[in-house]
Amino acid sequence: MRQKERRMHQARILAQAGHKQRDIAERLGVSPRMVRYYLSDEGAAPESRPRPSKLDPFIPLLESILEDDPFHNLVVAHRRLRSLGYEGGVSILRDKAAELRHSLVQKAVIRFETEPGRQAQVDWKEAGVWNLAGVPTKVYAFVMLLGYSRRPFVRFTTSMKSATMLSCHAKAFEAFDGVPHEILYDNMKTAWLFDGQNWVVNPKLLELASCIGFTPKRCQVRRPQTKGKVERFIQTLGSNFLGWARSEGLDSLDALNEQVNLWLVDQGREVLRDFLETRDERFTVEAGYLLPFLPEALPDLREVLPVTVSREGRITFETNRYSVPPQYLGQTLTLKVDRLEHRGELFAGGSSVRVLSLAPQGTRAVDDRPEDRQGLLELWRRQTRPKLQPLPPKAVDLPVVPPRDPAYYDRMVAGGSR
């Protein structure tokens, strides 16, 4: 700051404190006329005009880069801007990035509340390895949490595949008896795909969203505050319910899901400190703002797999074998799997062959139906029974009759007429 500007500010401060202009002049070592000038509008410090910067045309691009990732590598960003014509150095880029980053991070950490029915947040919790039906199995918890009421839905699964996640969505909508207007996800591949330039919604999720009516939203990377509601609940799920469930020795997905639903009932009655209301009380308000859930509008969410029928008349799925009618030996059929209901359906072309009750993965179970075994046995008999060929006619040795004179037959006729 220049000396003139400093004296001007000091003069104004002293004047506001009640000092006379002569006293101010003595304190500052200037004339009373100069003090009058400092206190007049003419003496106001002129607004400094920022000098144009080489970075100015590229600030919108820099903002978009930092909006996606506030801690983006600035050396990489500098290289990208230079390829677009930026001629400045990296120092000015760092200064501007620090200014923008501070603003963006401040926005991200400000706690925001969504209006009723507006948003839900989705995430997975890796629940560790459990002994399910005697087989060590990785277990995951799907969680959807409504933003306003904090009402959660939890479903334990053995897979985080797309078909499983989408089926969990349907179960959550059924539990809420409604659909939020938008659902927030992180960069999980079952929700978002990067096409090299932009993030796009996974086609399967997009199909579900268009049929049911919600909008998928992507949270900003490295900003846990954006999806903080569901992540805070997941911490509670891990430290509270999962510890208790292990101590109880729960050994099946059905048992885990049954018990977590009971636990969620208790969670709904607890008072939220931030609102002095329970989840149930807030959900009573939020339920009226959710979109209606129409189960008949759901697309087919099952996982689709090709399976080949072996010579023994069986298909194999996750180490378990299931018999099929013998007419499909050697053919490749389509298996549609509903992992949440442990059910599969076999199709030959577009026709359903049968519905299967699926055994737990890794148990090496064999499900042979009597009618399939009987049909396979009959087919085997038909194919292996020797075919009887007709015998060729047997040659008969006849006595050789020597030729006789025709008069011999004349005498026989003449003698017979007597």
Defining traits:
4 domains; 16 strands; 40% helix; Nucleotidyltransferase, domain 5; four-stranded antiparallel β-sheet; five-stranded mixed β-sheet; single chain; elongated; alpha+beta; 418 residues
How would you describe this protein?
With 418 residues, the protein is an alpha+beta fold. The chain has 4 domains: 3-43; 56-109; 119-297, Ribonuclease H-like superfamily/Ribonuclease H (Nucleotidyltransferase, domain 5), CATH 3.30.420.10; 303-384, OB fold (Dihydrolipoamide Acetyltransferase, E2P). The chain is built from 13 helices and 16 strands. It has helices at residues 3-16, 21-28, 32-39, 59-68, 74-83, 90-109, 162-176, 203-212, 228-248, 253-269, 279-286, 370-384, 406-416, and strands at 119-132, 135-146, 152-157, 182-185, 192-194, 199-201, 215-218, 271-272, 277-278, 303-308, 314-317, 320-323, 332-338, 343-348, 351-357, 366-367. The strands form 5 sheets. Strands 3-2-1-4-7 form a 5-stranded mixed sheet, sandwiched between helices. Strands 10-13-14-15 form a 4-stranded antiparallel sheet. Strand 13 (332-338) and strand 14 (343-348) form a beta hairpin. The protein is elongated and about 190 Å long.
